[in-house]
Amino acid sequence: MSELKIYPVKENIAANALIDDAGYQKMYEQSVVNPEGFWREHGQILDWIKPYTKVKNTSYDPGHVDIKWFEDGTLNVSANCIDRHLATKGDEVAIIWEGDNPEEDKSLTYNELHKEVCQFANALKAQGVKKGDVVCLYMPMVPEAAIAMLACTRIGAVHSIVFGGFSPEALAGRIIDSNSTIVITSDEGLRGGRAVPLKQNVDQALTNPDTKCIEKVIVLKRTGGDVAWTEGRDLWWHEITENASEQCEPEEMNAEDPLFILYTSGSTGQPKGVLHTTGGYLVYATMTFKYVFDYQPGDVYWCTADVGWITGHSYLVYGPLANGATTILFEGVPNYPSTARMSEVVDKHNVSILYTAPTAIRALMAKGDEATAGTSRNSLRVMGSVGEPINPEAWEWYYRAIGDEKCPIVDTWWQTETGGILITPLPGATALKPGSATRPFFGVQPALVDNEGQIIEGATEGNLVMVDSWPGQMRTVYGDHERFEQTYFSTFKGMYFTGDGARRDEDGYYWITGRVDDVLNVSGHRMGTAEIESALVAHEKIAEAAVVGVPHEIKGQGIYAYVTLNAGEEPTPELHAEVKQWVRKEIGPIATPDVLHWAEALPKTRSGKIMRRILRKIATGDTGSLGDTSTLADPSVVDKLIEEKAKVV
Length: 649
Ligand code: WTA
What we know:
Belongs to the ATP-dependent AMP-binding enzyme family. The protein has 649 residues and is of the alpha/beta class.
């Protein structure tokens, strides 16, 4: 039903937007007919030190996947995000910081940001950080997180940000894989009134003997909470920047030099280090930010994502700053201290563009009028959604309750791997259908394929692939190019496979149906079932585990874990709590199972493969249609599981 609902572009919005529907059609056409010419022109959205002469050099051929954009150009990311704005916008606000506590805030102009970034860049240099070194950031949401990112780019260091909600074990794994030489952290973070012991987590991570690559730990004083100190290794941020010079010449980087590594979950094994490079990534982040949010001078832009996720990289820091925008960095959570906090922040800072996630929208929607009480949100002009499919009910609520029916919603589909938004409406160009990410951005060529890899046309449903490259595409899995090819280019030869399924309607609009692989999306956070399973079986009392996703009203998906205990172990309530706690400790709070199902045995085929299809159905209570169970080694396992399900808490 809701699919029939269409919200045409309002005339006043189309008239004032950067681009209308005819403009979109024309530019899109150019971008796919002549990608080379299109990107040659639009690469100029950045300032280059040495202009590129080559534009696109990409191959998806099996065994030879190679992606290069603007390969002979040179530039510096921090110069594009800061220096080039100084002449005209030096005194304009670059970053507004809104604290967890509503009484704490501050802002930094572009001039101030320049000074802080140069000082910290010089401090990093003084600690021996060189071009190409990997610097790990494990930071709360404070301006220094953005300053540290930009300082790395200024000197050509590669940052690897680890979300502050990850556990010491997860942090250690990422430090080891990326071979980081420095960790930047703070004494504690602050979220929803609670302190997060970041420095303590770093200390713990560094007890892992394989983290020897770390030479220094730079600690920002945020809360003033007590921290342990390792002389010779630990340094205070304020002490090393105190006397640092306020000038730091930006390093000339090649377009294909690494910019950052960001770990993300896949369907198998350990998280992968997604590698993005300098030129193509920044061109794409800058251009998508401008058009997708219809950014215009004077806008105040707020993206609620954490810097630890790709959205925090592309649309909290790099895209907005490269456009010379004012970006809000929010330390807290959308419903603290009051349910209306998000709306209050919008009013307080006159936010005109708001970019948030379905899980936050649904959590607020559940509170009804409380979420907007006492606020006007009059400043809002454009609203965005990202991270997971937005259900039409949540879309409608966002549109009515938050946006007062005057703001177009851009439902942006993309991935850590894609660097920037690939499928999205444009505010002045695209008629909206609640729940649809609508149409491809410029230069993006999506297609749907069946399970044999045949492209299927027209209104249909299938696996979502990209048939050609765009500048923001990841270049490799850090240190493992073979895994890159295997993961993304081997399922359907010659195409980039997204891991998502999608439907395309008669108007050519895409409706993302969710992951088709063993990747969960819990509150917009990606997690591999394999990752959670290996954390579970690492517990001494657990013999086997299988994890499936189940629908969850607020989180989108919840984690349902089947656990088989070692012989002789009893499934007590204490063990139940202990196992949940164990997963929190191994990965982080976001991976805590919602449901633990003590299973006597798991359904396996004769060759020993767990039949997840059956586990998914049992978890959702859909036991009337289990399908063929005759290939199971022991079909009676199924009845047993259904029996046990009744006892699950
Ligand atoms: C899902 C986040 C539907 C999708 C930027 C994708 C979405 C995964 C949307 C990537 C959307 C993201 N509609 N699904 N608008 N945005 N997804 O790497 O399954 O954290 O593959 O990047 O999130 O998650 P990631």
